[in-house]
Amino acid sequence: MPQLSRTGVSLEEDLLKEFDRLIKKRGYANRSEAFRDLIRDALLTETIDSNKPVVGTLTLVYDHHVPSLSQKLTEIQHAAGTTILAATHIHLDHHYCLEVVIMKGRSKDLQGIADRILALRGVDLGKLVLTNSGKDLKGGKHDHPHGASR
C-alpha cells in the first residue's frame, strides 16, 4: 500500500456543505476519497491537454440506412490502424445502431479520429471519453499489481 500524507484544506462552510452533499450522493466513504478523485481528474485533464498517451471510447448512434455511412465508418477505422483496438456494434431498432470504438494513442490523434467520425452525415449522437492509459497512473483506487510484479 502506498504511503499516505496528510494535508489540510480550508473551505467556506457553504462550499463544504455542498461538497458533503455531493460525496454522500455519489456514495463516497469519506472526503479523502472524494478529494483523491478530484485530483485524479485534474491530472487526467493535464494528461489530455498535453497530448500524452491515453485510452478512449467513442460511443456513437447512427442511422444505418444513410447511404455509404457504414463503409465510411469502416474506412476511417481501418485508416486509424492500431489506434483502434476494438469496436462493438449493436442494432437498436430498424434504423439506428450503436457503436462503441475503443482506442489507444495520443489524445489529439484520438480526438481527430472522433471528429472525423462524428462529422459524418447520419451519425446523430456521439461522445468521446478519454482517460489515462494507466501507464503513469498514481494513487489509483486499486494501486496494486494485477498478477504480475511491476
Unreliable runs, pLDDT <50, ≥5 residues? 143-150
Would you identify the CATH architecture of the largest domain? 2-Layer Sandwich
The CATH H-level superfamily of the largest domain is ACT-like. Chain A, domain 2
Mean pLDDT: 89
Count the beta strands. Answer: 4
Strand order of the largest sheet: 2-3-1-4
Distance between the termini: 14 Å
The level 1 CATH classification of the largest domain is Alpha Beta
Shape: elongated
How does this structure look, described?
The chain has 150 residues and is an alpha+beta fold. It has two domains: 13-49, Arc Repressor Mutant (Orthogonal Bundle), CATH 1.10.1220; 53-132, 2-Layer Sandwich (Alpha-Beta Plaits), CATH 3.30.70. It has four helices and four strands. It has helices spanning 13-26, 31-49, 69-79, 107-118; strands spanning 53-63, 84-91, 96-106, 123-132. Strands 2-3-1-4 form a four-stranded antiparallel β-sheet. β2 (84-91) and β3 (96-106) form a beta hairpin. The radius of gyration is 20 Å and the shape is elongated.
